[in-house]
Amino acid sequence: MSASLIRVATALPLPPARWTRTTDVVVVGSGAAGLLTALVLADARRAVTLVTKGTLGDGSTRWAQGGLAAVLGPDDDAELHVRDTLVAGAGLCDEGAVRTLVEEAPDAVAQLQALGARLDLASDGRPALTREGGHSRDRIVHAGGDASGAEVTRTLGAALRGRGIEVLEHTAALEALRTADGRVVGLRLARIRDDGSLADAGDLRARATVLATGGYSQVYAATSNPEGATGDGLALALRAGAEIADVEMVQFHPTVLWTGRGAAGQQALVSEAVRGEGAVLVDRDGRRIMPGAHPLADLAPRDVVSATIAAHLAATGDDHVYLDATHLGADYLARRFPGIARACREAGHDLTREPVPVVPAAHYSCGGVVADLDGRTTVPGLYAVGEVACTGVQGANRLASNSITEGLVAARRCAALLATELPAPGQAVEPAVGRAVDPTARRAVTEGASRHAGVLRDATGLATLAGVLATAPRRGLEQPLDLAAVETTALHTAATVLCAAALTRTESRGCHRRTDEPLTRPEWRVRLVHRLDGAGHLHTRTEPVRSLVGARGVA
Ligand code: SIN
Fold this sequence. Notes:
The protein has helices spanning 32-43, 78-88, 95-114, 148-160, 232-239, 272-276, 302-316, 330-336, 338-346, 402-420, 442-452, 459-470, 483-504; strands at residues 3-7, 20-28, 48-51, 68-69, 129-130, 140-141, 166-168, 171-178, 184-192, 198-211, 222-223, 244-245, 250-257, 265-266, 280-282, 321-324, 356-365, 368-370, 382-384, 389-390, 456-457, 513-514, 526-532, 537-544. With 555 residues, it is of the alpha/beta class. Strands 2, 3, 7, 8, 9, 10 and 19 form a seven-stranded mixed β-sheet that branches. The protein has a six-stranded mixed β-sheet with strand order 1-24-23-12-18-20. A four-stranded antiparallel β-sheet has the order 13-17-16-15, covered by helices on one side. Residues 64-66, 271-273, 364, 400-401, 403 line the site of succinic acid.
């Protein structure tokens, strides 16, 4: 495909560097993928600096409820996990990457346990396993009932201490440092003050730069993700010359707690594991919604459940549906899902006695920086692991609980690669300076994306969104950069690519549902890959997907 007139920021109004330091590897982000990458590299005696814009352990992992998918049950089989992942991925998974994930997942879980993770155990002392949507076997390892991500974060955060890793909290990664021939050799960093302004900018030169910055679900007004999920890594990588792909594939979780019309920001998740244990979705009259929509009913792949709910809401004019778990029993629910029961109580609902109101919300970015499972991107020196990466594991729709697993597997592999061999050092040129998107645009971006590029989309709405994005105000070069401008620019970049890709893909597949193009078209079994030129024009091309299973259970 040719160059388009779609434009995103090519650079930021960077503060000048007041210091320069060097390290072997700089890791950005402190969710599961970032923490484990840093930890394994430190054990391999690499000098590691871990940068996070919040505090250590901030990131989406901490909020994950369900757990980690891995083949551990006596009735399970790697082929089944591969098949379930490919089927959920709706034809866009890279089967080779999926096989690697599935084969290495049990070792990643064992490593977590060896590091001290207190997983929920069955009576035989092995990890207890549950099921989530799209899985044909019980294979979700969990902890603290519904606090799996918190336990992963606690374990890795504790293990990190005393290993000589330099941790820079409240620090923003603003821009990649690049050599004249385009290799990435570190980052321009700045300390984030309490008021969001930036201070003490400097250059951290690194042989390898690893992005583990998470996704871009904050592009939407309502999301299960924390406020930091603004796509900073995606935008930074794009500006650094990296390719990004599958950006239109944003997974909406079918069940976040509905707290009122127009609720914005991070919403409380009601784990799919609640449906895995038997809860069902019902409408306002108590009628079940999912039977008839898919053979797996309430445990259909997530894209199918969210699209079915969205279609139901559009048809009825209701603004939420209900999740009925009452038949599971109060004692059981309180024991198995203590955090969810508490969140419901705080919102005025008793999960044990009444169906609770739920609605889909943005949850996971299947798209991201094109990378392999060793973290290599299309730019030498730049690596991406976890949700920021697009490895082909998640395809057009991530299979539930494959994401922390992917983060851990990719972290181990990327760290092993960099422990063996680091890219050569290089001389950085001064980064370009450009105009940031004004933070006042954020609301229009998130509301526009929610309205026009949500679970269900069409060309008219997407064109409206494209207009909103094209006219987003830019800041003058003289205005100092702050965190709000960094994040708004990243959100604007992610939303612009998402919108362009969603307009280009004239079909429905996985997380991308076009009401004006409802069919899945064989000719669209390709990935949309994007790169940026120096003028800020987005170039998009299609890439074939290697050896995948095509057929899904249901159209
Ligand atoms: C959930 O607990 O439903 C979320 C799990 C996931 O997103 O993989």
